[in-house]
Amino acid sequence: MINISILGGSGYAGGEIIRILLNHPQVKIQQVTSRKFAGREVSLVHPNLRKLTDLTFIHPEKLSDCDLLFVALPNGDSMGIMKDLQKKAKKIIDLGADFRLHDAKTFTHWYQKEHLASTLLPKFVYGITELHRADLKKASFVACAGCEATVSILTLYPLIKHKIIKEKVIIDAKMSSSQAGMSPSLSTHHPERAGVVRSYMPSGHRHTAEIEQELSVFNKLEVAISATAIDMVRGLLVTIHTIPKDGMEEKDVWKAYRAEYKGEPFIRIVKELQGIYRYPEPKILQGTNFCDIGFELDKATNRLVLIGAIDNLVKGTAGQAVQSMNVMYGFKETTGLMFPGLHPI
Ligand SMILES: NC(=O)c1ccc[n+]([C@@H]2O[C@H](COP(=O)([O-])OP(=O)(O)OC[C@H]3O[C@@H](n4cnc5c(N)ncnc54)[C@H](OP(=O)(O)O)[C@@H]3O)[C@@H](O)[C@H]2O)c1
Question: Domain check: are 90 and 172 in the same one?
Answer without folding.
Answer: no
